[in-house]
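Appendix B, record 7
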Amino acid sequence: MLKIAAFCNDAAPSNNLVSIVKRYEKEFTWYFFAYKNSPAFRIFQDAGLHVRELHEKSNIEDLLKNISAAIVIVGTSWQNRTHLEFIKKARELHTPSIALLEHWVNYRERFGYPQEGWQENIADFVTLNDEAGYAIAQELGFCNAIKLRFEALLGDMQRYQTCKNEEENRVLFISEPTKKVAFTTFGDENFWGFNEFEVCEEICKNMDKFLTSCLTIRLHPSDEIQKYDYLLQKYPKLSIKIENPYETPLIESLCKNKIIIGIDGFVLFEAMVLGKLSISLIPSSKRECVVPIFEQNKITTLKNLKLSDFKVKSSMDDINSFGIDFASMVKKIANEKK
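Structure tokens (predicted):
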């Protein structure tokens, strides 16, 4: 049985990998690695997977040697660089590596761009889960890109069919750590000229335009639980619910809310695919929404908002027909190595 070593740090690739494992758990022997304080560690544990905890002094080469992995898979991140070490050590051990790419942004930066020689950090293969992501990878020169079926989203699409009738007349705001990312990346919390608190409050002030007074705020995995508690007192006329992403599955949240609004991020894409009204609100010209949702649904203000101006159309058929299945991909790569 093929042995697969997998490292992830961020939530997005971890969630997709968990969906892959659930489908192909018995076809491969899996080994999972993550730092204990990372979103990946908690996601793997919550899924009942045995995770090997990494430390700063962990010897990745020895870890891979000890399990004799046939394939090394990494989730990519543009802030954490451990996946590059896994790719490097896999190459030194002549073990094929696969990097999971998602979210349509910073594909090159995840491998060290713009540093000289960053191309040497690229995994033997990179995977994309939708046409927009694949087109970006091709445009950036990733000649080893593979179209891979999006197991996490496919699973949510199946679950959506059983819970879509639970929809309530509620708006779902998708939080993100805008201030934190701006400071970490640019050294200025206000680099983009706005933050997530201002966007959320703009929504609170304009809930009448959404024809409801019910708002759900879904926290980002890195958000503090009390992050938006102050809004409960500031807007007492609104019915505000704050949602922990580690307790409420994303698909459950999408089923129960009629309108999905956020700044950027994958959730807006999934909402659009499911046929929900998905809106990106970015009140600044210094940042653009990179998520491939309908252009007329990307707005900079809620002033003069009319729900009839937005486009709503499911694209589940496109996701269903996209890509090769994981098992076929891995077996083909392993056989090519032989």
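Remarks on this record: The longest strand covers residues 29-35. The domain at 155-316 is CATH 3.40.50 (Rossmann fold).
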